[in-house]
Amino acid sequence: MIELLISLLLIAGGAFAAVAGLGLLRLPDVLIRMHASTKAGTLGVGLIVIAVAAHKGDLLVTSKAVLIIIFLLLTAPVAAHLIGRAAYRSGTPLWQRTVIDEARQQSHVNDQATS
């Protein structure tokens, strides 16, 4: 039974990692690409790490797996936010079908407040 669970976790983790890679290739905008890679990539790696911990069944490996998942959940959103912010501030064009640009609206509000 544990082998079936490990197999399902590995397949699901690999599928999410593949979706993240596909998102990097196919999505139109750097911000949308980042979203896909961060969400799907983190979930994929997390599932694979859980599968490894379940396969080993050792307390040391399980504690390392928990620490890896916590580290991923803490660092991936922060890194994605900083990369997206840097891309936006450097003038990377948004997707032509982007309707709302809240960052530009916020910068205009800040510019008017300081004037």
The structural domain count equals: 1
Strand content: under 5%
User: Whole-number radius of gyration?
Assistant: 19 Å
Which word captures the global form? elongated
Helix content: over 70%
> What do the pLDDT scores average to?
87
Give the structural class.
mainly alpha
Q: Could you tell me how far the N terminus lies from the C terminus, measured between alpha carbons in angstroms?
A: 67 Å
- Low-pLDDT parts are none
N-to-C order of helices and strands: HHHH
Number of strands: 0
The major beta sheet can be summarized as: none
Q: Total helix count?
A: 4
Q: Could you walk me through the main structural features you see in this protein, from its secondary elements to its overall organization?
A:
With 115 residues, this protein is mainly alpha-helical. The chain has one domain. The protein is built from four helices and no strands. α2 runs antiparallel to α3. The longest helix has 31 residues. It is elongated, with a radius of gyration of 19 Å. The mean pLDDT is 87.
